[in-house]
Design goal:
The chain has about 475 residues and is mostly helical. It has a single domain (about 45-470), classed as Ammonium transporter fold. Helix content is about 70%, strand content about 0%. The chain has helices at about 1-85, 90-115, 145-150, 170-190, 195-220, 225, 235-255, 275-290, 300-330, 335-350, 360-380, 390-410, 420-450, 460-465, 465-470.
Length: about 475
């Protein structure tokens, strides 16, 4: 019995130890599983936080830079008004103000869809009416869509701009302010003789049928961009479009009364407020730090830092070379030429700003400053009356800046790589296609407007000033001014 008792006792001990070990093993396995799950949850949370942080940073950056570009409307208004006569100040200010309202409505109704809607080589066909377009861009942080967008997943109507990890309305607003800039360029070129209502109608045509179509070619998945054409922030897409449309308007309108004599002499018509023009140029220089770096549509530190410096360097050097060139050719420095030199450098660097070194941006600016002065002289010689130098700044240097991508691109440029002239040829094709379409359609539009509602104010109104004739008010009431 004692022996049996011992064996029973031993058996109980063994069973107890076994059960205890099993329980301990089960607990440890449960803890390991829980720990593994905890680490997985933690990793997912970190990943989600990183996505949301980038999503918010990209959105804030893009919207703030878009606001800077919007602020450029003030710069254009000041430059154009200051470089024209006081009797037309209200008219020019009013055009620069209303053109953004026109662009907003036109681009919202149809322009965005034509530009970024999925479709063929010429224009968008899906999501034409913006309110009906489908987009999977995240509307708030903390969603699966934010992660999908950041990882490249997309299933919407605007595939060409799906690369931007910002909400759809953010994308729209940034692109809208660019459209408004292109339309504003026309205002200065046709100043001091255009009918107010005709300018408004043409601005709608710009926002709906001109700017968005070329935008689809370059940025919306059309033939130019698909073929390798590069225009980072819009030397062609914004500035040349505005320039070609302005050139067509000048040709149909004709020069201002008294600008050219019968024997071919050029009569300078000085602006009335160079202080206002200088303020406007400073505003535009500031706005360009939104225009070019903001085109990343992402808070990418290295990229935006480089672009800020290439942009600034081109502007600074162009300011100097324009001043020096004017000094040599005319005997004295001219403030108007200095201001336009700065703007010419900014326009020229807009296309290549993300693709070139700071050193090469200085070269681009140096050439742009000389080019703008020679261009102003050229347009006057062929009797193309441009009161503010818009053609020389935006058209000539928009074309030059786009060519510079093919010359100075760090990986594809003719002067900076062994790729040959391939990129340069691609750039020239994009420039040519834009010129033919924009200039041709603008000529047609201006001509139709001329023979329907008219585009030029009567001669007596032009002499008296458009402020009284078109608006019934003066910019400087109570002041006696000598008008030419």
């Amino acid at each position: 019995m004692r022996t049996q008792g011992r064996w029973v006792w031993k058996l109980c001990v063994v069973l107890g130890v076994g059960l205890a070990s099993s329980a301990a093993w089960a607990v440890s396995q449960t803890e390991t599983s829980a720990s593994t799950q905890s680490f997985a949850d933690m990793a997912a949370k970190v990943k989600e936080t990183a996505y949301n942080t980038k999503f918010m940073a990209d959105t804030v950056w893009t919207l703030v830079t878009a606001m800077l570009v919007f602020f450029m409307n003030l710069g254009f208004a000041c430059v154009e008004t200051g470089l024209c006569r006081s009797k037309n100040a209200v008219n020019i200010l009013s055009k620069n103000f209303i053109v953004f309202a026109v662009s907003t409505v036109g681009y919202w109704v149809l322009g965005w869809g034509i530009m970024f809607g999925d479709g063929g080589w010429f224009a968008g066909t899906n999501g034409l009416w913006f309110v009906g377009g489908k987009d999977n861009s995240p509307s708030y942080a903390g969603t699966d869509k934010a992660a999908e967008a950041l990882m490249g997943a997309y299933d919407g109507d605007y595939d060409a701009i799906a690369w931007s990890t910002t909400p759809l309305w953010c994308k729209f607003f940034f692109q809208l302010v660019f459209c408004g800039t292109a339309a504003t360029i026309v205002s200065g070129a046709v100043a001091e003789r255009i009918k107010y209502k005709s300018f408004i109608v043409f601005s709608f045509i710009m926002a709906i049928f001109i700017y968005p179509v070329v935008g689809h070619w370059i940025w919306g998945g059309g033939w130019a961009g698909s073929g390798g054409f590069l225009d980072f922030a819009g030397s062609t897409q914004v500035h040349s479009i505005g320039g070609w449309a302005a050139l067509a308007g000048i040709i149909i309108l004709g020069p201002r009364i008294g600008k050219y004599t019968a024997d071919g002499k050029v009569n300078p018509i000085p602006g009335h407020n160079m202080g206002l023009a200088t303020i406007g140029c400073f505003v535009l220089w500031l706005g360009w730090f939104g225009f070019n770096p903001g085109s990343t549509m992402a808070a990418a530190p290295n990229d935006i830092a480089l672009i800020c410096n290439t942009t600034n360097m081109a502007a600074a050097v162009a300011t100097l070379t324009a001043t020096i060139t004017t000094w040599i050719l005319m005997g004295k420095p001219d403030l108007g030429m200095t201001l336009n030199g700065c703007l010419a450098g900014l326009v020229a660097i807009t296309a290549p700003c993300a693709f070139v070194s700071v050193g090469n941006s200085a070269i681009i600016g140096a050439v742009a400053g000389v080019l703008v002065v020679l261009s102003v002289i050229f347009w006057d010689k062929v009797k193309i009356d441009d009161p503010v130098g818009a053609l020389s700044v935006h058209l000539v240097n928009g074309v030059f800046g786009t060519i510079c991508v093919g010359l100075f691109h760090k990986d594809l440029g003719l002067f900076t790589s062994d790729k040959g002239a391939g990129q340069l040829w691609t750039q020239l094709k994009g420039i040519g296609g834009t010129a033919v379409y924009v200039f041709g359609l603008s000529l047609l539009a201006w001509t139709v407007l001329k023979f329907t509602m008219g585009i030029r104010v009567p001669a007596e109104e032009e002499v008296q000033g458009l402020d009284l004739g078109e608006h019934g008010q003066e910019a400087y009431p109570g002041f006696q001014m000598v008008q030419k």
